[in-house]
Design brief:
This protein has 20 helices and 18 strands. The chain is α/β, with parallel strands linked by helices. This is Non-ribosomal peptide synthetase.
């Protein structure tokens, strides 16, 4: 931008206060201007990033005179050519798809082996293999299991001291554990197909009664409805259909699975009669898989509460929801107007567990969030059991950068407020109008009439701040662009997923 005069762009750190005049969080205030420099510093390697620690004060001083690079008016980004096919493939084929591929492929290989009649266990326990996969699938999306058996223990054991490559791997795996959820669910349904086909093939030899065949078909149909409702296209274009069918058909599938397990266990192939035996049923694998599925699904719903809320609407595009009690960094919450219908997950803003309040910023994206602005309720339903999200894994790293756009600030603000080793970059439009003048504004694109050179700024701060990782909270297009740029520049970055 040679020849362009510098102009004020806002602040990187500000003396921010939460709504309702809550206690201020003291952070360093710094004003920035546009730079005309195109020089960049090489991104450090993993080993370089782990050498010598400078203090945060040293780095804040180094960044105090940093000039925010801005693009020409009307220019959307500084990229001169699209990223390579390899970079785009690496961003697309993320650990989520890798986890899905591995989980589903292993199941399909096992089914192919079972079809050759060389695996006796699969012939006799296909239902256990199906339910085992469904148990793993439910666990990988369960708030209780993930928070207390995955996120918490791994962060406690490996935070900060472990090699950076291992912490990066763990972050990618945990964030994308939903791939195992999808892969095992699809694999479990494939095993149900195998079981149903085998049952029909052997129905005469085993004298299988119509009741067992019927419940097998009904169970198969219901679990397929659950899977169909969760496909990416349905979730993106018919979210209400997904919410209702994935949840209620899922609950129905659990009931049908219990009935199928009980009927199949009580049928005696030798006598051709039904003989109910609770002791025998309790010793079967199928019983315990069905039991754990039921427990995992039920635990979060036992924590649903109707709570009072205060909603302010600083603009027609956003609702700021205030709840009682403070929340630790990295947790997210689900809220709804109904006890059972249409729960939506949001990042939580809080100064810590000692605070007397926490907040959710809900940007208007559909009918439900629009209703929070046009018809703000006095009460909302929420689950007191909050679930851990990607920001929770910030504890893994010595230093990091959280970059977000618009209302994405809700997912990362607690991280930058509660952890002083995290640097915040916030980009949006009409931010003072939407959020007020003291909310960590970095670059107001509407006010400036231009966009920042985001990747240059991000790389400069990554090097100067000696960050180990970047957390991105943006829309799908912005997330993909930043992820591709980070890959090209050797920067470790993680962003949101459609299935997160």
């Amino acid at each position: 931008m040679a020849g362009n005069p510098p102009s004020a762009t806002g602040v990187v750190f500000s003396s921010a206060k939460l709504p309702e005049n809550e206690k201020k969080t003291e952070v360093t205030a710094t004003v920035h201007a546009v730079t005309d420099s195109n020089e960049s510093t090489p991104t450090p390697s993993i080993h370089d990033a782990e050498k010598g620690e400078r203090t945060l004060e040293d780095d804040e001083k180094a960044l105090a005179r940093y000039l925010v690079p801005a693009l020409e008016k009307g220019q959307k980004n500084a990229r001169l050519k699209p990223p390579s096919l390899w970079i785009r493939f690496r961003v697309w084929y993320n650990p989520y798809r890798i986890n899905f591929s591995v989980a589903f492929a292993l199941n399909m290989i096992a089914i192919v082996v079972a079809c050759t009649h060389r695996w006796g266990y699969a012939e006799n326990h296909a239902a256990a293999l199906a339910l085992g996969n469904l148990t793993a699938s439910v666990a990988c999306r369960n708030e209780f299991f993930l928070r207390y058996f995955v996120y918490w223990p791994l962060v406690k054991v490996f935070q900060k001291w472990a090699p950076l490559w291992w912490r990066i791997f763990l972050t990618g795996f945990i964030q994308h554990i939903g791939g195992i959820h999808s892969g095992c669910a699809a694999g479990g349904i494939a095993w149900f197909f195998f079981l149903t086909i085998r049952t029909f093939q052997h129905r005469f030899a085993n004298h299988t009664p119509a009741a067992v065949l019927a419940w097998g078909i009904i169970t198969l149909i219901v679990v397929n409805v659950v899977m169909f409702a969760a496909t990416p296209w349905i979730r993106a274009h018919h979210h209400n259909f997904f919410e209702r069918h994935h949840r209620f058909a899922g609950w129905g599938a659990v009931v049908f699975v219990w009935i199928f397990v009980c009927i199949a266990d009580s049928y005696n192939k030798e006598t051709g009669q039904f003989h109910s035996n609770g002791n025998h049923l309790a010793r079967t694998q199928e019983f315990w898989y069905a039991f754990f599925i039921s427990v995992l699904i039920g635990i979060p719903w036992l924590t649903v509460r109707k709570v009072p809320v205060e909603i302010t609407t600083p603009s027609p595009r956003v609702a700021v929801i205030k709840f009682q009690k403070g929340i630790q960094q990295g947790l997210l919450g689900r809220i709804s107007r109904s006890a059972t219908m249409e729960y939506h997950g949001f990042g939580i803003i809080s100064e810590g567990i000692e605070s007397n309040a926490h907040y959710i910023i809900a940007g208007v994206q559909g009918d439900w969030t629009r209703g929070l602005v046009s018809d703000p309720p006095k009460f909302l339903y929420t689950r007191e059991m909050k679930f851990a999200g990607l920001p929770y894994l910030a504890h893994f790293f010595r230093r990091g950068i959280a970059i977000c756009t618009g209302s994405g600030i809700g997912a990362v603000l607690s991280t930058t407020v509660q952890l002083d080793n995290w640097f915040l970059i916030w980009i949006g439009s009409d931010m003072e109008k939407s959020f007020g003048p003291e909310r960590y504004i970095l670059f107001d694109t509407k006010k400036e009439g231009r966009r920042p050179d985001t990747m240059k700024m991000l790389k400069d701060i990554y090097v100067s701040f000696k960050a180990e990782v970047v957390l991105i909270t943006s829309n799908p297009a912005g997330n993909a662009e930043l992820m591709q740029g980070c890959k090209e520049n050797g920067m470790h970055a993680f962003g949101p997923l459609w299935d997160s």
